[in-house]
């Protein structure tokens, strides 16, 4: 096909779409089902209607080929485990008794069976359920869900393309099941898995699929020659099937690198590549292999992970370069639109001119359709859209919101000394022990306590004017008093104020810093039914006034025990926001760090002796390629130290991380120079404690003994057993006892019981240590 005919054939598509609905109907239906207020039929009806609504929105916008299989009740990787029959033995009976309840049991656990481990989906803030595999795993095909979704879309008269997690990525994301040797490689199960995928492909072909997309984002990471050979074998076998749909293998989030020649040679009909995060690298690599003659190329030129309007002329130039490198060039977002909110037009509190800078999922589909139209028919066909786009880009570039000379001058004046504590850790530790006088194995929580319906109602009433600020603050004071009283009665050693006043650990701060925009309806799925509204980091950052000092000092006035000041760190403020793309991330991180440094210093001046600066996103934001790690980790750890280094030696700095693979960044954790770190460890069976010990981590650590992402209450014996396992790696004088993460999403009954058990476990193990 000539470049001209390839352009004329251009079509618009996406890989996935937000699942929740405009009013988060899916979240409400699922949580209603868990509480017994919604039955299974009603839940399924809600899901059916949401899929129908999504597909119609896409089709009406001009998307030529809609995705199916991207919708999920909880997580698409968990859906894949169900599709291939990889059900953990402890959940098998539940799944066989009731497929839906068994599905949720794998995600959330039951009182008798722990859930699957959860961790971040590559370098996003989406969490997936980690498959558990063993040498004995027997895969079986169950394409019911995928066939049903396809049938629903086809019945609406739509052209539909099922989207599945590819077999190589599925195995690379998996871990050895509990009790299986740690060196077991799930990739050795490929020959057992491929026939199952073959059956699913046959089922989808029979159901009417012309194309099926197999997502292989794991191939954009550094891969060994053996892993690449495995990928080549997988697609040789799947491509060699006679009764199958056409195969589109998709990658995203980074450059494909050495995997591109492998997939280019494979007997598949199409590739989908990211031309936003890695445009130049993927362009060069594609040209180096001679393009994709006779194949379809889906070009992800619209950023599926951020919310800024696309530079249409720049994207058209990229698309024009791709013409002639493939038989057909289609236009798409760089990845699933799962990672952005649904519709920017729902926002009423953002100035209309600024709103034009933003593109959520619905606006991105319009951009994709516009680019496909321009590619196929020439720029004259989209002249009005191009003119409007140029005006929007110019408006943003010239806005006073994006440039504050005072902030830039302060940032430029930062020196290396500003990021170093005044004394080395051993001297600080001695000063802190003398000052705080904490027992062996001190107990604490991560920060937040349950956000009750009453608290959420109070915030809604304040926004709606049904109560005044005095009434709202009285409710917050009462909640803080209850939280402090409970912690004292339970016997926790270092307390928190519970964060009753905070809607979200990033949004709360963003609303008080200059340069940020907040949304009212910009919900994005983090995991399961947990949705967040990432703020938009649009301009230069500063802190007009103290943000947390008032409530922290009030809580401290209610107790003689230390109360932690609680802040969100600079990297997490970036990672869990939609960050500006018009300057290096390091520059933005430094601005945020300086604003937070002011808050840390004010907390200390107000008498706060323990200050926690959470950085759960430090690992999440780690680049996918090892060669990019040093630069990122240098500015990320510098930003944390810049935030925290201005305090006295006897002020104890904590940090917290959760639900990520920490073994990759243990040196960076060390480089933060925090006095205490708390980490998720319950689901991963204290793996992180062993990793810290293997590194020789010299400071204090609290690997979690209570999995807060499950409703189950761990018994005191269970918590004590985990604590003993932690002691095998970390000396008692440096070990803290805490939950995996904050308690915001939990209910009070399970929170009370779990923390009481946690304190009992700590006391039991203290007694054992004193007797030994």
Quick rundown:
The chain has 772 residues and is of the alpha/beta class. The chain is built from 30 helices and 20 strands.
Provide structural commentary.
With 772 residues, this protein is of the alpha/beta class. Helices cover 45% and strands 12% of the residues. The chain contains 30 helices and 20 strands. The protein has a 7-stranded parallel β-sheet. Strands 16-17-18-19-20 form a 5-stranded parallel β-sheet. It has a two-stranded antiparallel sheet with strand order 2-3. Strand 18, helix 27 and strand 19 form a beta-alpha-beta unit.
Total helices: the number is 30
Uncertain spans, ≥5 residues at pLDDT below 50? none
Helix content: 40-55%
Q: Major sheet, described briefly? A: 7 strands, parallel
Report the count of strand segments. 20
Oligomer: single chain
Question: Strand order across the biggest sheet?
Answer: 1-5-7-8-9-10-11
* Mean pLDDT level: 95
Helix/strand layout:
Layout: H1 3-8, H2 25-34, H3 40-61, E1 66-68, H4 76-83, H5 89-97, H6 99-108, E2 118-120, E3 127-129, E4 132-133, H7 144-155, E5 160-165, H8 167-173, E6 175-176, H9 190-206, E7 211-215, H10 225-239, E8 246-250, H11 259-265, E9 270-274, H12 279-288, E10 292-302, H13 312-322, E11 326-333, H14 352-355, H15 361-377, H16 383-397, H17 405-412, H18 425-436, H19 453-464, H20 469-490, H21 507-510, E12 514-517, E13 524-527, E14 530-532, E15 536-542, H22 549-556, E16 565-568, H23 570-575, H24 585-605, E17 610-614, H25 617-620, H26 629-644, E18 652-657, H27 666-671, E19 676-679, H28 687-695, E20 700-703, H29 716-727, H30 748-771
Parallel strand pairs: 1-5, 4-6, 5-7, 7-8, 8-9, 9-10, 10-11, 16-17, 17-18, 18-19, 19-20
Antiparallel strand pairs: 2-3, 12-15, 13-14
């Amino acid at each position: 096909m000539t470049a001209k005919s390839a352009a004329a054939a251009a079509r618009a598509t996406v890989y996935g779409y937000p699942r929740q609905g405009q009013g988060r109907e899916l979240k409400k239906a699922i949580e209603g089902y868990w509480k017994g207020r919604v039955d299974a039929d009603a839940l399924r009806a809600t899901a059916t209607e949401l899929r129908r609504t999504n597909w119609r929105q896409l089709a009406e916008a001009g998307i030529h080929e809609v995705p199916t299989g991207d919708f999920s009740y909880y997580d698409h990787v968990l859906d894949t485990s169900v599709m291939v029959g990889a059900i953990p033995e402890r959940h098998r009976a539940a799944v066989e008794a009731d497929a839906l309840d068994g599905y949720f049991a794998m995600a959330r656990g039951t009182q008798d069976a722990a859930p699957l481990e959860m961790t971040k989906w590559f370098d996003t803030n989406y969490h997936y359920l980690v498959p558990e595999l063993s040498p004995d795993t027997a895969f079986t095909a169950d394409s019911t869900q995928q066939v049903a979704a396809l049938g629903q879309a086809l019945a609406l008269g739509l052209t539909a393309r099922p989207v599945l997690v590819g077999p190589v990525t599925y195995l690379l994301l998996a871990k050895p099941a509990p009790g299986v040797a740690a060196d077991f490689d799930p990739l050795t199960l490929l020959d057992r898995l491929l026939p199952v995928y073959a059956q699913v492909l046959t089922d989808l072909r029979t159901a009417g699929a012309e194309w099926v997309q197999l997502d292989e984002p794991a191939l954009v990471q550094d891969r060994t020659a053996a892993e690449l050979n495995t990928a080549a074998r997988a697609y040789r076998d799947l491509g060699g099937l006679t009764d199958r749909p056409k195969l589109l293998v998709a990658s995203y989030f980074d450059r494909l690198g050495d995997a591109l020649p492998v997939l280019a040679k494979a007997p598949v009909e199409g590739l989908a590549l990211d031309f936003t995060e890695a445009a130049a690298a993927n362009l060069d690599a594609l040209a180096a292999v001679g393009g994709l003659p006779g194949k379809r190329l889906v070009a992800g030129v619209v950023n599926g992970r951020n919310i800024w309007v696309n530079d249409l002329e720049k994207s058209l130039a990229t698309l024009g370069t791709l013409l002639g490198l493939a038989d057909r060039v289609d236009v798409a977002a760089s990845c699933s639109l799962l990672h952005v909110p649904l519709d920017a037009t729902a926002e009423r509190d953002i100035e209309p001119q600024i709103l034009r800078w933003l593109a959520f999922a619905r606006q991105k589909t319009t951009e994709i359709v516009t680019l496909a139209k321009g590619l196929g028919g020439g720029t004259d066909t989209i002249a009005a859209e191009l003119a409007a786009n140029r005006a929007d880009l110019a408006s943003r570039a010239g806005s006073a919101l994006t440039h504050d000379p005072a902030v830039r001058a302060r940032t430029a004046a930062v020196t290396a000394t500003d990021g170093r504590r005044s004394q080395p850790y051993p001297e600080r530790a001695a000063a802190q022990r003398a000052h705080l006088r904490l027992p062996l194995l001190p107990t604490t929580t991560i920060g937040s306590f349950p956000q009750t319906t009453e608290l959420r109602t109070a915030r809604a009433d304040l926004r709606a004017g049904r109560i005044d600020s005095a009434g709202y603050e009285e409710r917050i004071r009462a909640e803080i008093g209850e939280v402090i009283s409970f912690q004292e009665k339970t016997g926790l050693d270092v307390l928190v104020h519970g964060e009753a006043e905070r809607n979200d650990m990033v949004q709360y701060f963003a609303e008080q810093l200059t340069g940020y925009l907040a949304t009212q309806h910009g919900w994005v799925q983090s995991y399961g039914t947990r949705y967040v509204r990432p703020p938009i980091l649009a301009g230069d950052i500063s802190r007009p006034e103290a943000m947390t000092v008032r409530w922290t000092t009030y809580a401290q006035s209610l107790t003689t025990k230390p109360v932690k000041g609680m802040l969100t760190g600079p990297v997490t403020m970036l990672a869990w926001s939609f960050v500006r793309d018009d300057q290096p991330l390091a520059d933005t991180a430094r601005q945020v760090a300086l604003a937070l440094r002011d808050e840390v210093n004010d907390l200390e001046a107000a008498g706060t002796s323990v200050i926690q600066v959470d950085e759960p996103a430090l690992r999440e934001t780690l680049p996918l390629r090892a060669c990019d790690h040093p630069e990122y980790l240098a500015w990320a750890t510098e930003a944390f130290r810049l935030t925290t280094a201005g305090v006295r030696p006897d002020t104890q700095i904590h940090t917290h991380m959760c639900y990520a693979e920490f073994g990759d960044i243990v040196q960076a954790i060390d480089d933060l120079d925090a006095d205490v770190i708390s980490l998720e460890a319950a689901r991963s069976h204290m793996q992180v404690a062993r990793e810290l010990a293997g590194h020789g981590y010299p400071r204090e650590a609290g690997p979690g003994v209570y999995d807060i992402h499950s409703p189950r209450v761990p018994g005191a014996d269970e918590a004590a057993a985990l604590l003993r396992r932690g002691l095998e790696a970390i000396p008692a004088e440096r070990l803290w006892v805490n939950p995996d993460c904050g308690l915001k999403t939990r209910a009070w009954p399970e929170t009370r019981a779990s923390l009481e058990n946690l304190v009992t476990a700590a006391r039991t193990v203290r007694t054992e240590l004193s007797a030994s």
